[in-house]
Amino acid sequence: MAEKRLNEHHIIDKILDSVEKNEDIVKKAVEILKEVPHYTWVGIYLIQGEDLVLKYYLGRPTEHTRIKIGQGICGAAVVDEQTVIVPDVSSDERYLACSVETKSEIVVPIWSKDRIIGEIDIDSDYPCAFDSEDKKMLEKIADVIGDVIQ
Ligand code: SME
What we know:
Helices cover 33% and strands 27% of the residues. With 150 residues, it is of the alpha+beta class. The chain has a single domain (2-149), classed as 2-Layer Sandwich (Beta-Lactamase). It has a 6-stranded antiparallel sheet with strand order 3-2-1-6-5-4, sandwiched between helices. A hairpin with a 7-residue loop joins β2 (51-58) and β3 (66-68). The mean pLDDT is 94. The structure holds methionine sulfoxide.
């Protein structure tokens, strides 16, 4: 993937800046992350009862605005209590399709204290788009979001 460029410090600084300004962290985090070239679709789901509810996203429209915990890659990340990286969505039975162009996905739980309250979900039109660098940065951002929205 020729275009891949992640400036982790730059992205985290922008998120922290938005926290300081008391902006809507869910919306701002999605906007900031969508600037990363290989992040084709970026959304944040929050848990409401037994469901993950899509609060804000940028990218192609999706029918998956409400996902049962346990369903899809999104639900699996909550049940497994960890980040899930899927390098090739076509070979993962759990995958709930949003777009035929999506090739890979990462889902990062958002923790508040000792419970998961939501997650960051990112799709890419590139296969194998997500690695340990993406995971590390997104987990830091998820921590910031979890602290802010509790
Ligand atoms: N692919 C996700 C569903 C949400 S869309 O990516 C926007 C899943 O398998 O849970």
